[in-house]
Amino acid sequence: GCTPGRFSSNVRGGRCEACQGDGVIKVEMHFLPDIYVPCDQCKGKRYNRETLEIKYKGKTIHEVLDMTIEEAREFFDAVPALARKLQTLMDVGLTYIRLGQSATTLSGGEAQRVKLARELSKRGTGQTLYILDEPTTGLHFADIQQLLDVLHQLRDQGNTIVVIEHNLDVIKTADWIVDLGPEGGSGGGEILVSGTPETVAECEASHTARFLKPLL
């Protein structure tokens, strides 16, 4: 049998040693940024030939890691522990990222949502404070609604969520808003108004209020 280590790109055994499981080789460029080229030994597949001969439901480890979250959710439907974690990633709108995608290639908003999905998959205490910085960055409006559903789910469990956000779809659903301004940078920093969305919408000094009011 095989140990889990054979399918890890972080330890010796199953990975390609030429690229140490990265799938790419770094080429140092003097006076220019380094470039990365596909490993000529594994052809970017990250594992050695023996490991790539092992298949699960007709798929190699490389093919599994190349699946999107949505594809993997269907593929592992019969494995409840995996399916549940993959479903939480889908719930926060990350259907399109790949299982083997490097964390360094994720945007700030995507990385936050991965952490959020991890929290969702745990048994919550209902006593956690979450702080999110613009989690809607790069999201389609349908994915924003998915994210809001997740945030409301965490709130309904008794948790507290602080969100730094400019997206009006998020702002209008908040229980309580603290609006800073009146401008950005050195022209801001003052609390103009705090309260429910309806209260904030009536503040004449707030730029947010002007755009928020028609949505309520």
From TrEMBL:
Domain of life assignment: Bacteria
One Gene Ontology molecular-function label: DNA binding
Nucleotide-binding found in the keyword field: yes
InterPro entries in the cross-refs: ABC_transporter-like_ATP-bd, P-loop_NTPase
Main location: cytoplasm
The keyword rRNA-binding is annotated on this UniProt entry: no
Domain ABC transporter, first and last residues per copy: 67-137
GO CC terms: cytoplasm
GO biological process, one term: DNA repair
Keywords: ATP-binding, Cytoplasm, DNA damage, DNA excision, DNA repair, DNA-binding, Excision nuclease, Nucleotide-binding, Repeat
UniProt-listed Pfam families: ABC_tran
Cellular localisation: Cytoplasm
Similarity field: Belongs to the ABC transporter superfamily. UvrA family.
Official protein name in the record: UvrABC system protein A
